[in-house]
Amino acid sequence: MTVGTGSPAQARSAAPHAPEASPAPVPEGPVPEGPAPERHVREQPVPPALPDHCAGGLGIDPDDLPDGLVVADETGRIICFNAAAGRITAVPAATALGRPLDEALPLEDLKGARWWTLTDPYGGLATRRGQPERNLLLPGGREVLVSARYVRARPGGPVRRVVVSLRGTEARRRTERSHAELIATVAHELRSPLTSVKGFTATLLAKWERFTDDQKRLMLETVDADAGRIKRLIAELLDISRIDSGRLEVRRQPVDIAAAVGRHVHAHTTGGQSPDRFFVRVRPGLPELWADPDKIDQILGNLLENAVRHGEGTVTIDVAPTTATSDGEKGTEVTVSDEGPGIPEESMGRVFTRFWRGSKRGGTGLGLYIVKGVVEAHGGTITVGRGPRGGAEFRFILPVGTPAHLL
Length: 407
Hints:
Number of helices: 10
Helix content: 25-40%
Distance between the termini: 53 Å
Number of domains: 3
CATH class of the largest domain: Alpha Beta
CATH superfamily of the largest domain: Histidine kinase-like ATPase, C-terminal domain
Largest sheet: 5 strands, antiparallel
Oligomer: single chain
Radius of gyration: 33 Å
Strand content: 15-25%
CATH topology of the largest domain: Heat Shock Protein 90
C-alpha cells in the first residue's frame, strides 16, 4: 500500500472548499504567577488517520480491498490511494497522493458536469453524509462507479475526511450483456409461435366457411400447441427471475418420485416415443421425500426432454436411496442417462449456465439453468458426467426435506 500524509500547513489555498482552522484566542490581562491550576478541557474527537485505523485496528491493509479506496483530509488533499484505485483509474498512487481531490480525480457526470463542483463535499449543508453510487467518467471516457462518505468530528461539524469508493464497470457490463442476450433469446423464441397463432387465427376469422371441420381442428390444435410454448417460455422467464433474486418458493409436501417418473415416461410414450426406449429402475428402501411436486415435475420434465431430444438409444432413469448431506441425512438420488454422443469434457462446466445448448435441435438454453436452481432451492445438488454407455448422465440428489414443524 502507498500512503501519504498531508497537513494543513502543506495544503494549497486552492484545495476545494477546505475550511481553514481559526487561531486559538489569547487571554487578556496579567498572567498569574505560580503553578497553573488544573483545567479539565473536553477534547473534540478527531478521526484517526485511515492507514493506522485499518492496519492497526482491524488488521486490514487498504491494498487488500477489492474496490478502490481514496481518502482526502480536511484540506481536500489525498492521504490514501490504494492499489485498486490506481488500477481502476490508471492514476499512479505516487501521482495522486498529496494532490487535491478534484485534480487527482477529475470526475464528470454523463452530461459533462464536474462532479466535485456539483457535490461540493467540504461546503454546502452540514447535514450531508455522502453521495450514493453513480456512474461517472474520468478523462478519456473511462467509466467508473463512485460513491463517497463524509466523515465529521461531530454532527453538523466540518468535514474531516472524504472517503471515496471506486468500482469498475465490468461486472455491470457483463450483467447488461446477459440481459441483452436474454431479451434477444426471448424475442426469437416468441416470434415463431406468435406468428403461427396470428396467422392461423386471422385465416380462420377471414375464411371460416371455406374450411372443413378437420381443417379447423388442425389449425386450432396448432394454435393451442404454440400458445403452450409461449406459456412455458414465460414460466421459464419467471423462474429465472425468482432464482436470480433468491425468491424461488418451495411448497413442500410428500412426493412419490417413482410415480412422478412413471408419469413423465408415460407422457413421452403416448406422444409417440417407443416404450422400449425407456428403462426405469426403482431401488427398494426409498426414504420419504418432502418437496414441491410441481418443481419435481419441472426437473424430471427437463431432464427427460433433453435425453430424448439430444440423446440416442435407451434412456435410463434410476431412482435410489442415498445419503444427501455430510451429516448423514437420508435422501433420494435420481440418475437420467442416455446412449448418445454425450457432452464434451470442455463443455461440462457450462452445462448449467444460461443459454447453453448441447446441439442445434432447438430449445432456449434455459432449462438446465432452471433445473439447477430448483434442485438447489430444495437443498439438493445436481451433477453432469458421462454415462456407462457413453451418453450424458445427469444425477440429482434431494434430501428428505421434512418441514421443521414435523421434526
